[in-house]
Amino acid sequence: MIEENVKKLLESMPETNPYGEKVTLVGAVKLQTPDDINRAVSAGLHDIGDNHVQEFKDKYPLISGNPVRHFIGHLQTNKVKYLIGKIDLYHSLDRITLAEELSKRGEKTGVISNVLIQINIGNEESKSGFALSEAISAYEKIKAMDSLKIKGLMAMLPDTDDTNQLKRLATLMREKFDRLRQADRDIQFLSMGMSGDWRLCVDCGSNMIRLGTAIFGDRNYN
């Protein structure tokens, strides 16, 4: 049951990470029906994250409860126009051209978009994002864009059973997050952790996790 899953998660999640920061649960709603999303929101889910623009467009007016809206998937620049002004936080700012498009659209509409810089922490060819070594230079370039406000960093850990490697990478993300936050009061969120690794990520300092299967069960790709 979706409602039971949400309640169990909210009860089992620590209220804060080891740094004393509130941990925010974002429900990943990819391929979920509006009815199921509304059930999760009614059960206490305050934040939901979409992966695909078309799904977001189709479901946007059908979601009740006014949850905080996140976009957590890869975003094509030609699709930004459909999201501008409707997304509370973009997690996947993975390249400068996307930042430029978001900023340009924001200037035209008077919208300031909150964004997270996506870091490819495992240097995986299958994933997008800036290398960890590029994080500071990317931050400086994006920070100069008037219609964007950087709120933190996002990462997806590699799919591996090597716990030591995962802890090492998650710790590197936290260190980079802390370095940025020392220089910028707007930096608030380290979005890191999914259904299979969120506990490890929170232990290493994540304060925002993105869970889909743990809430809705296995996705039906048919």
Compact description:
The protein has 222 residues and is α/β, with parallel strands linked by helices.
Description:
The chain is of the alpha/beta class and about 220 residues long. It has a single domain, classed as TIM Barrel. The chain is built from eight helices and eight strands; from the N terminus they run αβαβαββαβαβαβαβα. The chain has helices spanning about 1-10, 35-40, 55-60, 95-110, 135-145, 165-185, 200-205, 215; strands at about 25-30, 45-50, 70, 90-95, 115-120, 150-155, 190, 210. Strands 7-6-5-4-3-2-1-8 form an eight-stranded parallel sheet. β6 (about 150-155), α6 (about 165-185) and β7 (about 190) form a beta-alpha-beta unit. The longest helix has 21 residues, at about 165-185. The model has no long low-confidence stretch (mean pLDDT about 95).
Q: How many strands, which pairing sense, and closed or not: the largest β-sheet? A: 8 strands, parallel
Judged by helices, strands and strand pairing, the structural class is: alpha/beta
Tell me the name of the CATH class: Alpha Beta
Strand content: 15-25%
Report the span from N to C terminus: 20 Å
Q: Outline the low-pLDDT stretches.
A: none
The mean pLDDT is: 96
| N-to-C order of helices and strands | HEHEHEEHEHEHEHEH
Total domain units? 1
Q: How many helix segments?
A: 8
DSSP strand count: 8
